[in-house]
Amino acid sequence: MSEKLITSLNGMLADMHVMIAKLHNYHWNVCGLQFYSIHAVTEGYYNYFFETFDDVAERILQLGAKPLATVRGYLENAKLAEETGDSFEPAYVLNSISADFKTFLEQAKAANALAEESGDVATQDLLSGFIAKLEKELWLIRSTLA
């Protein structure tokens, strides 16, 4: 087990917790002509992140370590900032999500490199799926905002 990999995965876990809260905020508080589509897409995103959050935590346990499991721990280890607003234009939501997805993409690629160094194929597999999902969603967001 690589301590660097565990730290990286726990950092992703912390950011996923923040992301799930942000996505719910956007889901509930987006306004404007694209409300319905943004409402639907953010629901899909928070469901995906909740499932992935659990997968990452369980992978940390499989590696013999402990995942972060407190709100304080998440906030102390997260790179993403909480969203404090309560009313959002659709373009703001998509730009914010895009920026956060880019952060996740960097984290996942860095963690994937650590997993590769450790010969940890299962973690690489988990991260590869996450990377592919992020890259696709970033493309969809770019196309929507174009």
Q: Care to give the gist of this entry?
A:
With 146 residues, this protein is mainly alpha-helical.
Main sheet specs = none
Number of helices: 5
Q: Supply the number of structural domains.
A: 1
Structural class: mainly alpha
Strand content: under 5%
Describe it for me?
The chain is mostly helical and 146 residues long. It has one domain: Ferritin, core subunit, four-helix bundle (Ferritin), CATH 1.20.1260.10. It is built from 5 helices and no strands. Helix 1 (3-29) packs across helix 3 and helix 1 (3-29) runs antiparallel to helix 4. The longest helix has 29 residues, at 90-118. The chain starts with a helix and ends with a helix.
Blueprint of the fold:
Layout: H1 3-29, H2 35-62, H3 71-77, H4 90-118, H5 121-145
Features:
146 residues, globular, Ferritin, 79% helix
